[in-house]
Amino acid sequence: MNHILKIPFVIEKFIEAKICTQVPLLPCTYGDFEKMQMGYRWDLVQNRTLTTKHNGSWQESWYVIAQNEWGDPFFVDFNIENYPVYTAIHGTGGWKALKVSDSIYRFVEILNKINSVDLTFPCTLDFLSDMVDLKSEFWIEVNENCQEVE
Three-state SS string across 65-92, please? Predict the structure, then answer.
C-alpha cells in the first residue's frame, strides 16, 4: 500500500480506544491501521491488491478497524457517511459483509453498553434490543454464542 490515506478522525479514535468486551464475536484485537489491512486489502507475499469490484471480493472502500477472537475482521466503508460497521467470516473463499451497526458512533455506544452490564455467561443480549436488530444474521449469532459460553 504505497498511498497515503487520510484516516477519518472518528476511526482513529475508535482504534485508539481499543474497546473490548467479554463477547468473543465482538472486537478484541486492534492494531496499526495500515497493518490491519494486510491480508484483506493487500497481499504482502505476492505484493498485490486484493480489492476488486467482483461480488465476494474485498471492496476498495472497506477498511479493517478491528478483529474478534477468531480473526474475523470488523470494517467500515469509507464511502458511506457515518461509517457503518460490518463484519465477515474469514476463510470462506469470499467476503459476505454482515452489517453490525449503522454507524461507527452507534457501534461505540453498543460496545460501551455491553461493558456497562455485568454479563454472566450464559446470557442474553436482549438489553441491546433498543440499539441493534437482534434478528439480523450477525446479532442472532452473537446472542446464540453468548447463550452457549460458560
Answer: EEECCCCCEEEEECCCCCCCEEECCCCC
Q: Write the CB contacts of 78 (distance below 8 Å, at least 6 apart in sequence).
A: 8, 61, 62, 63
pLDDT in tens, 103-143: 999 999 999 999 999 888 899 999 999 999 999 999 999 99
At 88, which amino acid appears?
Answer: A
Distances from the Cα of 86 to the Cα of 32, 38, 116, angstroms? 19, 17, 23
Q: Cβ(104)–Cβ(10) under 8 Å?
A: yes
The answer to whether the beta carbons of residues 38 and 71 sit under 8 Å apart is: no
- Stretch 54-81: mean pLDDT: 93
Mean pLDDT of 67-89: 95
